[in-house]
Amino acid sequence: MRQQTLSDIEYSNRKRKTKREEFLGAMEEIIPWKDWVDMIRPYYPSGKRGHPPKDIEVMLRMYLMQNWFNLSDEGVEDEIYDSYAMRSFMHIDFLTQQVPDATTLLHFRHLIEENSLGEKIFNDVRERLDKAGLIMHGGTVVDVTLIAAPKSTKNREGKHDPQMHQTKKGNEWHFGMKIHSGVDAGSGYVHTITGTSANIHDIVETSKLIREDDTVVYGDSGYTGAMKRPEFQKDAHLSAIELRINVRPSSIRVPKSYQGINWDRQIENRKSSTRARVEHPYLIVKNYFGYKKAVYRGIRKNLNRFHVLFASANLVMCFRAGRGRDFCMV
Question: CA-based angle 169:173:176, to the nearest 5?
Fold first, then answer.
């Protein structure tokens, strides 16, 4: 156990904890720190040359807070100096050590991105949820969300990000990328995500979001016609899946004089009630973590960050459901 400092003793007399401190406390308990550190260690500098590298767990904690609070490299460094909750989460005592600087975090972030460690963290969380019996199987909800990208051309090439494109949604044009997600229909946990430019149609990524044991897939009207895709027709498992796709409201027409139950609308409402589970992880990532715009150039870097964010969203949902102990026992 870490030895208490005078600051810890002083702050322990506060009347209440802040929401940030409660969130970091929850993450402290539920994250398997040793396993994640061991996951990163093979890619981390050995320290045989140059200055001794910073402790992996310290860098990992700093990197995760950068994602959770949507901060720049310099911004998270400043916040740790300012915030007692963030300093405590880092396990840093200023009498013996200082916060890693922004350049050190930059190199660590590049190491995570280049070795796809964000995806490995996401997969680890999903596997632990599965082993704990918290993920149900047999049904998936597919959906997509648009992530805006900066339109600025103030860069060396004087151009937009070449991997980002425009798409029209409703009567508005959006420039950026899409995050496609597959969510477990029973529990609401995200089990698969992919990233594409915004001009790629939703149904193109559908087959990548379906698990081997899925028999039913839910989706909105944007997924109409997915079964006609060649990847569905050529695959025995995919072609046998029941697609429960919501139809467009305008296609359900009932005369005003009709007094009976509109069964078509009832069926669509049932589909929508199941499909609504896919919105909760998006709410956490966009509103709770504040990640509504792409921060980096290129699909790969942003997708790596989304893997970390959706893994964290799964942990948040697990903790809020009171199943953190089950997750930690795996």
Answer: 95
